[in-house]
Design goal:
The complex is a heterodimer of chains A (about 450) and B (about 70). Helices cover about 50% and strands about 5% of the residues of chain A. By secondary structure, chain A is of the alpha+beta class. The chains are: A alpha+beta (about 450), B alpha+beta (about 70). Chain B: Ferredoxins are iron-sulfur proteins that transfer electrons in a wide variety of metabolic reactions.
């Protein structure tokens, strides 16, 4: 067998790492080295990506990341396991690992801990994304109706109002502008706060926790501290809305489901975490993609009924969730693409590589805004597919359309080389700034 | 063709409604799929085939006429 790969992370602004192309063409499932020393698999073809993500013989636990330092997140687990109420057997594993002088990350992949995380996580730990059925199924069902295309469409007036307000601020300040700081971030934050019945003043209670967790340089103390403040805020918000329901999604959730306060805190933290950084980065990249080759912008501006389809293609082409942080682990021996994936072995799926698979999309390396990108995997696949995908589509479509109407002459104010993008090993790709003028 | 839905597998992702709004709807309470028209024709049939392909939970299947 060849030497296991390390996860390719060097990318250009709109293209995933170039090595993925050759890996997919030669070995669509190939051995992958994980930072905790584990050797698992990397999947790069569209067919096998769907096979893995759709197969319930794979667990979300222990969610080994193919990038980053496992020790950092393990320390967060270690520092919070008592207050989160994990059962005794989890504490025993951590104490044993530490007594042996092993890295604490060993505890998080211990079968006893993995079993607790996937079968009986204490109330108030982990989000939907870390759960397996049947726990996952119950919580997902409680949320699914609130995020259906029809229910999400009801929020369109609110989203359009928030967009208009934010663009008004941008216009008043005058050119040039950084659309990340002046538009994408404040907009997506205000959408999620409004939907969850929070106030703009609450943003400092959750935004730092999300950014700190994404930042690969953050220490475990900073993560623990911001997470505690975040959970405290989420609990206060749940109690506030329980006492005084409003016209928001959290009030609906409290009224319509049997989720208890701990579960609601989980849901709230997860919705905030997944709800603005992703959409803001995708919006920035979409606007960058359109302005970078300005003929695209001009064409869509002339007929904005083309925007939804164009955005699906940009979602495919850019693929925001880039390094496959949400790895799956085989619960039993599973055959994938002629390879025996042994029980306990982790598999990382490169959504970006799958989205450029020539067997799934004609001429996949070409951004073709008029193609039907149906079947792209940018929101994932399987039972963990993005819960908020229809909300994300609504926000993206409404924001790009409004931007084109209000600033038809919008253009980049800096060259591609001068613009700061996120790192290729960040869970979510995106832009640190989007300098524009008009 | 006839559409078959596996209600236990369904996670209420709503991709079927996006693909073929005349063919599928979702339960107001838990988002589970509702098949409005199990034997779609024309454009609706095309959309229904897309829906089967993109369903993230593999909860939809098509039985072609003549198949057992």
């Amino acid at each position: 067998m060849d030497e296991p790969l390390t996860m390719p992370v060097l990318r250009s602004p709109t293209d995933p790492p170039a090595e993925l192309r050759e890996i997919r063409a030669t070995l669509p499932i190939t051995p992958l080295w994980y930072p905790d020393g584990h050797v698992g698999w990397l999947v790069t073809s569209h067919e096998l990506a769907r096979a893995v993500l759709g197969d319930r013989r794979f667990s979300m636990q222990p969610m080994r990341s193919p990038v980053g330092e496992p020790e950092r997140l393990a320390e967060v687990f270690d520092q919070t396991r008592v207050e989160l109420g994990f059962p005794d057997e989890v504490h025993q594993v951590f104490e044993r690992v530490k007594a042996q002088g092993c890295p604490v990350a060993h505890a998080t992949v211990d079968p006893v801990v993995v079993d607790v995380m996937r079968n009986a996580p204490p109330p108030g730990t982990g989000g939907l994304i870390g759960l397996d059925p049947p726990h996952h199924s119950r919580q997902r069902r409680a949320l699914a109706a609130l995020f259906s295309p029809k229910r999400v469409a009801r929020h369109r007036p609110l989203v359009e109002m928030l967009i208009a307000r934010q663009l008004g601020i941008v216009e008043e300040a005058g050119p040039p502008a950084d659309l990340v700081e002046a538009f994408a971030m404040p907009l997506t934050m205000s959408v999620i706060t409004s939907l969850l019945g929070a106030e703009p003043a609450d943003i400092p209670s959750f935004a730092p926790a999300v950014e700190t967790r994404q930042d690969l340089e953050s220490g475990s103390d900073a993560i623990v501290e911001t997470m505690r403040a975040f959970r405290q805020f989420a609990l206060e918000l749940v109690l506030r809305r329980r006492k005084q329901p409003g016209p928001d999604l959290l009030s609906d959730l409290i009224r319509d489901t049997d989720l208890d306060d701990d579960e609601l805190v989980n849901v709230v933290t997860q919705l905030f975490s997944a709800g603005f950084d992703t959409t803001a980065n995708m919006l920035s990249l979409a606007v960058f993609t359109l302005l970078h080759d300005r003929a695209r912008w001009v064409r869509l501006r002339a007929d904005d009924s083309l925007v939804p389809r164009a955005l699906e293609e940009i979602l495919r082409y850019v693929t925001l969730i880039q390094v496959g942080t949400f790895s799956r682990t085989a619960l039993e021996d599973v055959e994938i693409g002629g390879v025996a994936v042994r029980a306990g072995t982790s598999v990382t799926v490169s959504l970006a590589a799958a989205n450029r698979d020539p067997l799934a999309f004609d001429d996949p390396e070409t951004l073709d805004l008029s193609r039907a990108a149906t079947g792209h995997l940018s929101f994932g696949y399987g039972i963990h597919q993005c819960l908020g995908q229809h909300l994300a589509r609504l926000e993206l479509t409404a924001a790009v359309t409004a931007l084109m109407r209000r600033f038809p002459e919008l253009r980049l104010a800096a060259g591609e080389d001068e613009i700061r993008f996120h790192r290729g090993d960040r869970q979510t790709y995106g832009m640190q700034e989007l300098p524009v003028t008009w | 063709m006839e559409i078959e839905a596996d209600y236990d597998r369904c996670i209420g992702a709503g991709m079927c409604v996006v693909s073929a709004p005349q063919v599928f709807d979702q339960d107001e309470d838990d988002g589970t799929v509702i098949v409005l028209n199990a034997r779609p024709v024309g454009e609706d049939a095309v959309g229904a085939r897309d829906a089967v392909m993109v369903c993230p939970a593999s909860a939809l299947a098509i039985r072609e006429d003549g198949e057992p």
